[in-house]
Write a structure and sequence with these properties.
Shape: globular
Strand content: 15-25%
Oligomer: single chain
Number of helices: 13
Helix content: 25-40%
CATH architecture of one domain: 3-Layer(aba) Sandwich
Radius of gyration: 25 Å
Number of strands: 13
Length: 383
């Protein structure tokens, strides 16, 4: 019995020491975080540099240095585009940790802009006899933001079609930054018609339809009061990109009054409330694009991408209603539509992002949707 008593006391003492050490470590970590300068940075922070590697701080500096210029011609609202005939870098920090194999040794990806201001090879406006051209309209998911253009779905679609169709050229008309659907159609009418496309594929991302990027949400996670707990929850618990599955986020954003959207910073002059789905502008623009294509006897197709959040096993994707609305409207208008959500839904969202701070589609995401896009396009080519 004396030995058992000593063993029991020893266990209690060890437990007390362990608990004390744990509390001390917790307190030390909390103090360290509270007195640290600024918030801990997330991995994969984005930055920009010109072709020589000189950093570019922001859009204002880029404009001052002539790296971005105004989009030419008549358009729904003022827009900038990358200056034709230049190259620039998108760079990401911490690639020694993230190991994104599509980035160079300095964590960068090069973007070559052609003489027409597109992330595309220079094209002869006089289409060679027998060449089949597909104009691909859209935003940064078409542009192939953050990855080599050769690993984006637009170029890979061309590679697939050329295997048995011969001279096929996809034309990447994707625009980086905030662009609305009526602007895609305006670009087709004002700028891209010169390429004489034999097919037009317009890609929609949900931020083209609602006053949200999918990253900003109405009710952020409230702090616990402990920086350590907040950090642990962000890293190991609920993601800051997660949305409350009990709320109908799609409908709330569709119904959001303009004054509230402005107050929340969800709309502004670059992403105007007037261009949202609730105002009917995207629906009208899609019909204008269809009419433009019908007048030239070329197929017009629409592809819709999801927000890359709420994806993966056990996750509740909160924006299905928007997909259904677009599908229903396209059906009424007689516009063929492909939704790539099913191709992505089973993959954890983090595995589809360029980096943790840049949730654009990475090469894996583009590869996952490629077979569906190829099948969709092939089904509408009459050769």
């Amino acid at each position: 019995m004396p030995n058992a008593a000593r063993t029991s006391r020893r266990r209690k003492l060890l437990g007390l020491v362990f608990a004390t050490a744990t509390l001390f470590a917790f307190g030390l970590a909390e103090i360290t975080l509270r007195f640290a300068d600024g918030e801990p940075a997330m991995l994969g922070e984005i930055s920009f540099a010109d072709e020589s590697g000189k950093p570019v701080k922001d859009l204002k500096e880029a404009a001052a240095r002539g790296l971005v210029v105004s989009v030419p011609g008549k358009k729904p609202r003022p827009r900038f585009m990358f200056r034709p005939g230049q190259s620039f870098y998108i760079a990401y920090s911490d690639n020694d940790v993230l190991k994104r194999d599509w980035l160079d040794e300095q964590g960068r990806v090069i973007n070559h802009i052609n003489r027409e201001g597109l992330r595309e090879r220079d094209l002869d406006q006089n289409k060679p006899p027998g060449q089949f051209r597909i104009a691909c309209l859209g935003d940064s998911f078409t542009f192939a933001w953050g990855i080599p253009v050769e690993q984006g779905w637009v170029r890979m679609l061309e590679d697939d079609l050329r295997e048995d169709m011969g001279d096929v050229r996809t034309i990447n008309c994707g625009a980086a930054g905030t662009v609305c659907i009526d602007e895609y159609v305006n670009g087709l009418q004002q700028r891209f018609s010169r390429y004489d496309p034999d097919m037009v594929v317009l890609t929609i991302c949900l931020n083209d339809l609602i006053p949200s990027s999918g990253l900003g949400y109405i009710d952020p996670i409230k702090p616990t009061g402990s920086k350590l707990l907040d950090l642990a929850r962000a890293v190991f618990g609920r993601s800051p990109l997660d949305l409350d599955p009990e709320r109908d986020w799609a409908q709330e954003l569709l119904d959001l009054p303009e004054d509230q959207a402005l107050k929340a910073g969800l709309v502004d002059s670059s992403r105007p409330y007037e261009a949202m789905w609730s105002q009917g502008v995207p629906q009208k623009a899609l019909r204008e694009a269809k009419a433009w294509c019908e007048a030239r006897e070329v197929p017009f197709l629409v592809v819709i991408w999801p927000f890359l959040q709420g994806l993966g096993p056990g996750k509740d994707y909160p924006f299905q209603k928007l997909h259904n609305l677009v599908a229903s409207d396209c059906e009424q208008a007689g516009i063929p539509l492909l939704d790539v959500l099913p191709a992505l839904k089973g993959t954890p969202e983090e595995d589809l992002w360029v980096t943790p701070t840049d949730p654009h589609a990475n090469p894996r995401a583009h590869l996952l949707v490629l077979p569906e896009i190829v099948k969709f396009v092939r089904s509408h080519i009459d050769r």
